[in-house]
Specification:
By secondary structure, the protein is of the alpha+beta class. The protein folds into two domains: 151 residues, no CATH class; 127 residues, no CATH class. It has eight helices and ten strands. The longest helix is centred in the C-terminal third of the chain and has 34 residues.
Length: 314
């Protein structure tokens, strides 16, 4: 009777493999944070406009070129009425009914989310003060709203002059920007996910949501650090895969503590089908989990004939 081969779990990964897994985690984490910063700086959505301060010597097209747009893209944005001129809002009374400032655009830094932010007051919104509207949309408390008020900029109107210099002391706001990577398949967009997959806890209070996800992610990360070091997966592929999951988990938890949300920016689509927007951290987690599942299935398949032959020999 021949002895069966030892299970994969009996072949502990070498020190080099374990170090490589940690290095892969650092690579995923670093790439994730770098790419998210690029998304924050160079993409725009109605909730997160791209704001560029003017110095009185350059046009809106020249200002937007500084942020990565080509001259053609910047001029098209101006002609498409996607560029607004912003000026100081002056003294804001947070007790003013929000409906009285309907139609104005306020942009501010310091909300705890990726700056800048947009505040759009709907004339049909429930009766609330300007301070309450700021608190609801930016999810800040009354004291923070009061501190933010002096930093607010107000929209002075659509900027349609592509070649004229934007006056000093003002700014231009690009309301939307996407980058097509593969036409009909992949586009870079700016999106924010306050919850987890399938919008889990999306509407939960910010403090609870951030703490909950952070604790879960940190506990899981500690478990993966230990699993990599001890060679718990039993194979080089499984250990490296854990590194990808570890880097992704840390990337998203950094976002939650830095911004209270997770920044996503890769949109895949075919025709009318849209895959949920994702980021590099999501890719590290997904690929790592998929690799572990595939390895487990292949391991079960390879052991089945051995077990059968052992039974026959017996």
């Amino acid at each position: 009777m021949s002895e069966p081969n030892p299970p994969a779990s009996g072949r502990a990964p070498t020190l080099g493999v374990r170090v490589a897994a940690y290095a892969f985690a650092v690579f995923v984490l670093t790439t994730d944070q770098w790419s998210k910063q690029l998304a924050v700086d160079h993409l725009a959505s109605p909730a997160h406009p791209m704001i560029v301060q003017a110095d009185g010597t350059r046009s809106a097209v020249e200002l937007l070129q500084e942020r990565g747009l080509s001259a053609e893209q910047a001029e098209r944005a101006v002609q498409s009425r996607l560029v607004w001129r912003l000026g100081a809002a002056g003294a804001l009374n947070l007790d003013t009914p929000a409906r009285e400032v309907a139609g104005q655009l306020f942009v501010v830094e310091g909300t705890g989310k990726p700056a800048p932010r947009r505040l759009r007051v709907d004339p049909e919104a429930p009766a609330e003060t300007l301070g309450e509207a700021m608190g609801r949309q930016w999810r800040v408390d009354a004291d923070t709203a009061a501190r933010l008020a002096p930093k607010v900029l107000a929209a002075e109107g659509v900027w349609t002059d592509a070649s004229g210099a934007v006056p000093a002391g003002t700014a231009v706001a690009l309301l939307e920007r996407e980058v097509v990577v593969v036409d009909g398949f992949m586009t870079l967009v700016y999106a924010e996910n306050p919850g987890a997959a399938w919008s889990f806890l999306r509407d939960a209070p910010v403090g609870f949501r951030t703490t909950f996800f952070s604790v879960i992610a940190l506990l899981a990360s500690l478990a993966m650090i230990f699993a990599i070091w001890t060679g718990w997966m039993g194979s080089a592929a499984g250990t490296i895969a854990l590194g990808g999951i570890l880097g992704g988990a840390l990337g998203n938890v950094i976002d939650r503590n830095r911004y209270t949300i997770v920044v996503d920016f890769v949109l895949n689509y075919v025709g009318d089908y849209r895959w949920p927007v994702w980021n590099i951290a999501d890719a590290g987690i997904t690929i790592g989990v998929a690799a572990i599942i595939v390895e487990a299935l292949l391991g079960m398949r390879s052991r089945a004939p051995e077990e059968g032959s052992t039974s026959t020999a017996a």
